[in-house]
Design goal:
The protein has 141 residues and is an alpha+beta fold. 25% of the residues lie in helices and 20% in strands.
């Protein structure tokens, strides 16, 4: 909610969590930019993302997993790259493990297939954004 880029809409999808998180979200997330969806059964991460994709109408799609956080300028940077003509943007990111902090960086301006296939860059769903038209035909079903 603290993104520098204010033109966002969050589709928060409950995939049949067994704790009280859905009630907590409904009580505390009153921002009109938030739409809460509740799966009737547990569908798993992939199908739950597809539920969100079908509900979303925005031109830029970005994912945020429940255990991740975005830097305040993440969406602004990605929206600027998409406005400049890119269809898919992956930003660098930082993550923590029990033993250490890790920065995932990529020094080239574009992620090349060879680097991705050889696992020379780790991609996290929460670090990506895509222009809707780049994949819209695959999410209409």
């Amino acid at each position: 909610m603290n993104q520098a880029w204010p033109d966002w809409h969050l589709y928060l999808i409950n995939d049949k969590s067994t704790d009280d998180s859905l009630a907590l979200v409904r009580e505390h997330c009153q921002d009109p930019r938030i739409t809460i969806l509740d799966n009737e059964v547990n569908l798993g991460a992939t199908e739950t993302r597809n539920i969100g994709l079908r509900a979303a109408k925005e031109e830029i799609i970005a994912f945020l997993d429940s255990d991740d956080e975005w830097h305040v300028d993440k969406l602004a940077q990605q929206a600027a790259a998409i406005a400049a003509g890119d269809d898919f943007v992956i930003t660098e990111y930082h993550y923590k493990t029990k033993n250490a902090d890790h920065d995932i960086t990529y020094s080239k301006p574009y992620l090349q297939q060879e680097n991705f296939v050889k696992k020379q860059y780790r991609v996290c769903f929460s670090s990506s954004a895509v222009r809707r038209r780049a994949f819209s035909s695959s999410i209409t079903n």
